[in-house]
Specification:
about 220 residues, DNA-binding, 6-stranded antiparallel β-sheet, two-stranded antiparallel ribbon, homodimer
Chain lengths: ~220, ~220
DNA sequence: CTTATTTTTTAGGTATCTCTAATTAAATTT
DNA sequence: AAATTTAATTAGAGATACCTAAAAAATAAG
């Protein structure tokens, strides 16, 4: 079973939406996630249904099948491995990798991915802290919460970001909130939800609730 | 000016055919080089003509324009850099790289190619000994002749192969004729054109004229 | 130098993936 | 519950890239 580049992109979007959003994924959601029109999505859903990577009943909803899940995770695996390559080996900044990885993920060659994985030393997380599925599609995700949800005096380690847009990532670079940083919540302002944290036991950082909501932490 | 993947493939084929074949490139030549039908080629030639990467007069012939040359060399540069990456870093055998490089060459990202080039230490030749054009499309090609054309007692160094098919490359691996090997012609049999050479001053090797014709040598 | 052959191009059709506009189904309001 | 709004789908059409079959041009043969 082989998917086209377009089909892979749709399936990946569906996977991501059903992971985050919980309840069923709507045609409109997919359209805006993938920057296309709902009419195109309907068309593609029918095709993905025929290929049995999703279960689809029109006007009703959809669900990824185990086959679809496997294929989506394969694409995500490739995407994240390439991101590691770009950052670790080619010294891309973490806000520059997405577009290129978006192209590289569609290269078809199981051998290439095996070799790349080995070459990168079997990384478990990508530069944004997202877990890399293994060759069988298994993901070891760490239990993590938004920084925003931590209480005062709680400690932890930044392990990932929710938003991977260049604007957000560059902001984090600027203020020094990198993945792996050990943090502690010093204060939370009730009025606006903003938060003050201590980074690596030496630097104080204030951030808005919008920012704190997009930083994921492994509490200790 | 941007080319689609298909357009890049046609242009690359045209470039290679006009380099080797000397005289004008025919529709049928392109069709068989690219594994497609002449009718499809005609179609594409019209489009490439409109995009001004070739000069095209129907029923008459075509010629690559300076623009087309630049774009073709860019694609070839990418292809060969990826081949170096696959062999040097991911330990692909030199007969396994072509298919994958054929996909990777179409990734669009000038930054990626710059970084890859630097990461590979600005290689000047690919694993088959073919020169890698620089960022401006300049190629430093070495004057080289087919092993078949050398005279008895002439010495040289294997620098490239004409045929890059896995079957041929695996044969070369088997007999130990690698790129960089220093060789000397010991004997040439007039009857069948076969040739006997000395490799690295220690190994005698017999080969048919078909093989000797596909090995390129820099004479010393 | 006219006929036959080969080469090349055009015409018409298929598949993929996209769009806009129109229609249909589902969800909300009143 | 009927009317309205929103969401989703179908209809029809465009772009790319391919195909087969038919026509046209160029080349080769008698």
């Amino acid at each position: 079973m082989e998917l086209t580049t377009a089909e892979e992109n749709y399936l990946k979007a569906i996977y991501h939406l059903s992971e985050e959003g919980k309840k069923s994924v709507s045609t409109n959601d997919i359209a805006s996630a993938i920057q296309t029109k709902p009419a195109s999505v309907s068309d593609m859903l029918r095709k993905l249904g025929e290929k049995e990577v999703i279960q689809y009943r029109k006007y009703y909803g959809l669900q990824i099948t185990p086959l679809g899940m496997r294929l989506a995770l394969q694409t995500i695996r490739k995407h994240r491995l390439w991101e590691v390559f770009l950052v670790d080996k080619l010294h891309f900044a973490w806000d520059e990798v997405h577009e290129v990885a978006e192209q590289l993920e569609h290269i078809q060659s199981p051998l290439l991915i095996e070799r790349l994985d080995a070459y990168l030393n079997y990384p478990k997380f990508d530069p944004h802290g997202d877990p890399i599925p293994d060759a069988f599609g298994d993901v070891r995700s760490r239990p993590r919460i938004a920084l925003q949800e931590m209480g005062i005096d709680q400690s932890g380690q930044i392990v990932a970001v929710k938003d991977s847009s260049p604007a957000f990532l560059r902001y984090l670079d600027k203020v020094g909130a990198y993945i792996g940083a050990r943090i502690k919540v010093l204060d939370k302002v009730e009025f606006d939800g903003s938060i003050e944290i201590l980074v690596d036991q030496k630097k104080n950082l204030f951030m808005s609730k919008e920012v704190a909501n997009n930083i994921l932490v492994l509490t200790t």
